[in-house]
Amino acid sequence: MDVLVTGIGSISALGNAYESWHRLLDGESGLRLQQPFPEFPPRPLGTIATQPIEFLKLVDLVVNEALKDAGLISPLPDCGVVIGSSRSQQHRWEELHANFCRQSSSQPLDTSDWHWLDSLPHMGAIAAARKIGATGVVLAPMAACATGIWALARAYELIQTGECDRVIAGAVETPITPLTLAGFDKMGALAQTESRPFDRNREGLALGEGAAVFVLETSQLARRRHAKIYGRVLGFGLTADGHHVCATEPGGKSAIGAIRQCLDRSGLVAEDIDYIHAHGTSTPLNDRSEAQTIERLFPWGVPVSSTKGATGHTVGASGALGTAFCLMALQQGKLPPCVGLQDPEFDLDFVRVARPADVRRVLCFSFGFGGQNAAIALGSLP
């Protein structure tokens, strides 16, 4: 059964889905030096507004975008919901802790405007389900940077198995918080000036806010309502390294396994792929490991780019944003550039500036902390 994408809701530091796509093709970056918290020095960050955005507000905005783009109106009681996040409302818990630390020990903590149940990790998916009146399956995956692709994979399975005819799926992330900045800074993983995926002089990652949510439908449902169609989900691959909390597995065996699994499930071979949207975090170890994986599986060359130099690393939402860019590439026959790349360290066919191409089948990769590996294959309509 064909699983079609009939709507895209996407928001990043570059703007909404279409603004992001056109600014990306022009080689623009949404990153800028910012200091949202006085205890941290200025860093390149990709914020949607002038200050870090609230998680549930971003969920609401991106679901609105997806529904509008798909031409759907609530309520949608039979629609499945699979919306993940690697951090969800972590910022709410950080705010509560900060307020607790500021309070006098003799005074009870004032939580009159805050209910802890509303800040649980799955509440983004629940908020989306409430918004559209969904009464069926509601899932909230958490798999570090692989969250977005995992959410889409699960939505694909729900449709393939006949559990749902339509699913709203994707990921939302608002990672710019003191704890997240402190954690990446402690690892030495944060960029000082800009994000440069696969560049010889890359400094590290730049955090970005972002979300991408898609409407997935059976081909029968999509055609019955004459929906706009961006492309097909062909298959996916999911593996785990079982190796280390943050270091990649030497040799990339599990990452290679996820890509091969994705190709097999999609009925494809490596030679069928016209473009790869790489994870490309701009960190020394990830970029090297990913480049070696691509060189091993695609030795004849395939166009490659990472868009994190433009949007920042949106963590759990990064695979979903990458999927949005892949679908735009399929629809418009253009490959997005690897913004920030000036001096490539690796011998790959990097897309340095946007280029026209005959794009029919693409792959999007995500490799998350804990050794979570994900790949998704997308294709144009026959």
Outline: globular
Q: What proportion of the residues is helical, as a percent range? A: 25-40%
In what range is the share of β-strand residues? 15-25%
Mean pLDDT comes to: 93
- H/I helix tally: 11
Distance between the termini: 14 Å
Radius of gyration, in Å, reads: 20 Å
Secondary structural class = alpha/beta
Low-confidence segments, given as residue ranges, are none
Quaternary structure classification: single chain
The largest sheet, given as strand count, sense and whether it forms a barrel, is: 12 strands, mixed
**Could you state the order of secondary-structure elements as H and E?**
EEHEEHEHHEHEHEHEHEHEHHEEEEE
